[in-house]
Specification:
The complex is a heterodimer of chains A (283) and B (357). Chain A is mainly alpha-helical and 283 residues long. Chain A is built from eleven helices and two strands; from the N terminus they run H-H-H-H-E-E-H-H-H-H-H-H-H. In chain A, helix 9 crosses helix 10 and helix 9 crosses helix 11. Chain A starts with a helix and ends with a helix. In chain B, helix 14 runs antiparallel to helix 15. Chain B is globular. Chain B has a two-stranded antiparallel ribbon. Chain B is 74% helix and 2% strand. The chains are: A mainly alpha (283), B mainly alpha (357). The interface between A and B is large, with 44 and 44 residues.
Chain lengths: 283, 357
């Protein structure tokens, strides 16, 4: 029983991280129709910058993590400018560009942080809940992620920029017709995706060390959670992230840790194929 | 711009064929002089070219993105290794490699090829990660450690073990794959593939069996990669799940994209060019005084930056850009272009001439 609680809570925590990554995918895809393959890279960069700020610069917790998130947001903006900056770049070409950016980022990451996994502890210690020993960090991850996602919902519902981005998501041509700068909204979306990715990175790095090539695993997990909502819904992306995180944690706990990626990816494939079947019947 | 008449296109085609013939002869003579290290690059370049040509058919002609092409390279390598380690003649094991890779592709393709665009890209990537994860967990497949001591490749009574023999074998295979692919794209199936890449619905209504063609080209590209993987296993003699990372799939995409999607020659040039570039950077990276991670760093930078620059500034790839340059030169008479490089009188004369055109 205590083991089950342990697996569930740790799964929910990791799932919240996936949900943040997934929200980044969704934010960018809704506005620009581009899949940002470098979403995992942004998380890794966020985590790495926070690590440097903490260890090398000696900044306190909170500030260091904030710096990591902001850095990821800035890099996201630059990536977006490269990927969609030129008019008329087709979405699939933009996907390949973000792929190239992710690989280029490897070089920068190796140069600055080396090729070994990096980690730091943010909120050390553990607590006991119904006999289960849990890391405090889990609670931090869950709390921060939920607040961030709530803020994201408010941003899209209440602010002028958020509404403009939603307008681009529902109809780009109509949005342009009423005077919204679609390209600028796309760049905002990339910056937002960067912030969300960076947040996922700084929250996850204390739980599992990240190395420069952790980005593929993170990107695939985030994408799997995002397609749960058809790449368009933030709420369903959260649900998808939680399901994925808990499923991985249960498989690792009760079966074998090495099978967790197989099962998670298998689920993602089945889900995509099932969704495609629906689309084909519609067409 | 004036329309291009047949006569004006002629110099380009003749030059291209002449260049290709010279390059082919040079390529086959090269192993006589190459150093051992460069011979390895030469052979691997040929193997990557075979896989890249397959991916070019799939991505460039049929318009189906794959970020997991290295999985078929891996399946081919493992088929060859496992069979030959269990006593199957090595030549039969090598021939089984493309067959099994194609069979797996055909089986997986049925559900996966329903997906399009970025969904297909992520699905193929996920498939590769799944296969790698399964391989590292199954003892029969060597688990995480992989296989060492893969027997030497023998064809009939002759053993292929010298690097030079492998180099020639590889490039003979590459040449055969080139000829088959070039003929394929000029034939009815090739036109069908291009049609379905443009619009599946239009192709279907024109009587093209879209699903069957997509599956066939997926299986063919897998067979190419599988064959290359089979040779790789015998050539290197050691394989493990780490030999076939996602990076390799991305490298194939870079090779196919830089000279131009939708060109078989582009894939060949891309594989050769990237292999040479990486080797050069590798030599730079291993120079004394360089940190240990330098070669890795430089190769990532080369792949990433090339991919980004080409996709942003020359989305059609380098080959069409070079072709345009050549045509511009042919149209403006090369002599004037050469003159224009000469400072002073020549440049002014050329500019006047060009303005009159």
């Amino acid at each position: 029983m205590s083991a089950l609680i342990e697996y569930l809570i740790s799964g929910v925590a990791v799932g919240c991280g996936y949900a943040l990554l997934a929200s980044g995918f969704v934010a960018i895809f809704r506005v620009t129709e581009v899949i940002n393959f470098a979403q995992g890279t942004l998380a890794v960069l966020g985590g790495f910058v926070a690590y440097s700020a903490l260890i090398s610069l000696g900044l306190p917790h909170g500030v260091a993590e904030g710096l990591g998130v902001l850095a990821a947001g800035a890099v996201g903006l630059v990536f977006g400018w490269i990927a969609i900056g030129r008019r008329g770049t087709p979405p699939l070409a933009s996907l390949v560009i973000t792929l190239g950016l992710a690989v280029s980022a490897y070089a920068a990451e190796i140069a600055i942080w080396g090729d070994q996994p990096v980690s730091f502890s943010a909120v050390p210690g553990d607590f006991t809940l119904a006999g289960a020993h849990l890391l405090r960090q889990y609670l931090v991850v869950i709390g921060v992620a939920l607040v961030a996602l709530l803020g994201l919902g408010l941003f899209f519902a209440r602010t002028y920029t958020g509404k403009g981005m939603s307008a681009c998501a529902s109809n780009r041509f109509a949005a342009r017709a009423v005077g919204i700068n679609v390209r600028r909204m796309g760049l905002y979306a990339f910056a937002l995706g960067g912030l969300l990715g960076g947040l996922a990175g700084v929250l996850l790095i204390p739980i599992e060390p990240l190395s420069f090539n952790s980005d593929i695993g993170l990107a695939v997990s985030g994408f799997a959670a995002a397609i749960f909502g058809g790449l368009r819904s933030f709420e369903l992306a959260l649900v998808g992230g939680l399901i994925l995180g808990v499923a991985e944690s249960l498989i690792a706990g009760y079966w074998q840790a090495s099978y967790q990626t197989v099962v998670a990816l298998g689920l993602m494939l089945l889900l995509m194929i099932w969704q495609a079947r629906g689309r084909m019947e519609l067409a | 711009m004036r329309p291009l008449t047949g006569r004006r296109e002629l110099p380009l085609r003749t030059a291209a064929w002449l260049g290709a013939a010279v390059a082919a002869v040079a390529t086959f003579l090269l192993p006589l002089w190459l150093s051992p290290a460069n011979m390895t690059v030469y052979t691997l370049g040929g193997l990557y070219a075979v896989a890249a040509i397959g991916l070019s058919l799939l991505m460039g002609y049929a318009g189906q993105a794959s970020l997991g092409q290295a999985v078929f390279f891996a399946i081919g390598a493992y088929t060859a290794a496992v069979l030959s380690l269990h006593g199957v003649p090595t030549s039969a094991a090598l021939l089984a490699a493309p067959v099994l890779a194609a069979a797996v592709a055909a089986a997986v393709g049925v559900p996966i090829l329903r997906l399009r665009g970025h969904y297909l890209a992520f699905a193929t990537l996920a498939f590769q990660l799944i296969v790698l994860s399964v391989i590292s967990n199954v003892a029969f497949l060597g688990a995480g450690l992989g296989f060492t001591a893969i027997p030497a490749l023998g064809i009939g009574s002759a053993q292929i073990s010298s690097p030079r023999a492998f180099a020639w074998l590889t490039w003979v295979v590459t040449a055969v794959v080139m000829v088959v692919s070039l003929n394929l794209i000029r034939s009815r199936p090739g036109r069908a593939l291009r049609a379905l890449a443009t619009s599946e619905i239009a192709a279907e209504s024109a009587g093209i069996a879209v699903v069957r063609y997509k599956l066939s080209v997926f299986a063919l590209s897998a067979a190419y990669a599988g064959f290359a993987g089979g040779i790789y296993a015998f050539f290197i003699g050691y394989i493990s799940p780490d030999s076939f990372p996602v990076d390799l799939s991305i490298e194939f995409v870079v090779m196919v994209v830089i000279f131009g999607l939708g060109s078989i020659w582009g894939a060949l040039l891309g594989a050769a060019g990237i292999s040479i570039l990486i080797q050069v950077l590798n030599q730079v990276g291993t120079m004394p005084g360089m940190p240990e991670y330098m070669p890795t760093l430089l190769s990532y930078a080369a792949y990433g930056v090339t991919l980004v620059l080409v996709m942003v500034f020359l989305p059609g790839g380098l080959l069409p850009a070079l072709k345009r340059l050549w045509q511009a030169m042919a149209r403006r008479r090369i002599s004037h272009l050469v003159f224009s490089l000469v400072p002073g009188q020549g440049r002014r004369a050329a500019a006047q001439y060009l303005r009159r055109q």
